[in-house]
Amino acid sequence: MAIWGIDLGGTKIEGAVLPSLQDTKPIIRERVSTEGDKGYEHILHQIKFLVEKMKSDSGIAPEHIGFGTPGELDPVLQTMKNCNSTALNGKPLKKDLEEILGVKVELANDANCFALAETTWGIVKEKTPEARMVFGIIMGTGVGAGIVMDGKIWNGKHGIAGEWGHNFLDESGGRCYCGKVGCVEKIIAGPALEDFYQKISGTQKFLKEIVSDASHDVLAQQTLDRLYDMFGKAISVVVDILDPDVIVIGGGVGNIDSLYTKGKEALAKYIFNNRVDVDILKPALGDSAGVFGAAALVANV
Predict the structure, then answer these.
(1) Are residues 71 and 170 in the same domain?
(2) What is the 3-state secondary structure of 80-105?
(3) What local confidence, expressed as pLDDT, does residue 301 receive?
(4) Does some domain include residue 38?
(5) Which of 9, 166, 181, 231 can pair with 263 through a Cys bridge, CB separation 3.0 to 4.6 Å?
(6) What is each CA distance from 161 to 80, 142, 164, 278, in whole angstroms?
(7) Together in a domain, 216 and 131
(8) What angle do CA 290, 291, 295 make, to 5 degrees?
(9) Element (DSSP H or E) covering residue 19
């Protein structure tokens, strides 16, 4: 049976239909603009438009659709929360989608979908198929993560499992939009690294420039050294509590090759153990992770 997944992003909504759990070459893959500034009802309209178009173009009607979302569905209130697409916050998205689409839907946030995709079809399946617990990190504009246990997402009591980006790390990060000071996200997310470099150098550079200039720019190297150390400190808390079998890093910061060695060395300084055995891997699915992870939500249903 074909598997439907839709990645609901802040700027685009992308859908894909996969032939089966074993065949991940999409039968069809399409996208539309989210246009979230036009409000919640318009987002629902865009989703319905995409689904109807995909049905027409593929000749396949969905029975169950997985959705990756930019926030979480509160397991008690059944409304969305922590969405950077703020029009979704407080809305009964699951209920409304099932009503307008006429099919059952499953929701998970984008980090959970990333972790599930890399576990089901990506680097975890390729490199460590025996892994039971996967911690899938997204380090880009923000910092978040998803937890997969025995092939299934672990949401937690409040639906916020994996939200390590808003744990306290260091006061130097300043105030976060969440209201706290010194969150992980304010230290090791891409914009935070760029802000730190500008603060110590007086010059503004994009993260890619900081990385490429580190060989001859002492302050760029200082910015990266701080990243390695703070990453090791931040992830040590996760490892001490969850002790995952594998960690996968996605997002723009995850493209920094040295993070996988220097960051792991920093983890060794802070972990409550005499060595580091956990694999820290680059993802394999790239931009496909979101929509593939959404499809994986219903692959075994």
Answers:
(1) no
(2) EECCCCHHHCCCCHHHHHHHHHCCEE
(3) 65
(4) yes
(5) 231
(6) 15, 16, 8, 20
(7) yes
(8) 120
(9) none
In this structure, what CATH number is given to the domain that contains residue 137?
A: 3.30.420.40
Q: Could you tell me if 176 and 225 lie in one domain?
A: yes
Closest to 5 in 3D by CA, of 301, 293, 300: 293
Let me know if residue 156 belongs to a domain: yes
pLDDT at 275 over 80: yes
Domain total of the chain = 2
Q: Which residues pair with 249 in a beta bridge?
A: 137
Statement to judge: residues 182 and 91 lie in one domain: no
> How far apart, in whole angstroms, are the C-alpha atoms of residue 199 and residue 125?
41
131 lies in which domain range?
A: 123-283
Class of residue 37 by CB neighbours under 10 A (exposed 0-12, middle 13-18, buried 19+)? exposed
What pLDDT score was predicted for residue 101? 97
137 and 59 within one domain: no
DSSP secondary structure of 192-241: HHHHHHHHHHS----HHHHHHHTTT-HHHHHHHHHHHHHHHHHHHHHHHH
Q: CA 282 to CA 268: how far, in whole Å?
A: 19
Contact of 145 with 231, CB cutoff 8 Å: no
Question: Quick one: 40 and 127 in the same domain?
Answer: no
Is-contact 74 269, C-beta < 8 A? no
- 115 assigned to some structural domain: no
CA distance 38 to 73: 21
The amino acid at residue 292 is: F
62/127 same-domain check: no
For the stretch 193-230, pLDDT in tens is: 999 999 999 999 999 999 999 999 999 999 999 999 99
Q: Are residues 69 and 105 in the same domain?
A: yes
Q: Is residue 162 part of a domain?
A: yes
Tell me how far CA of residue 119 lies from CA of 61, 69, 97, in angstroms.
27, 18, 27
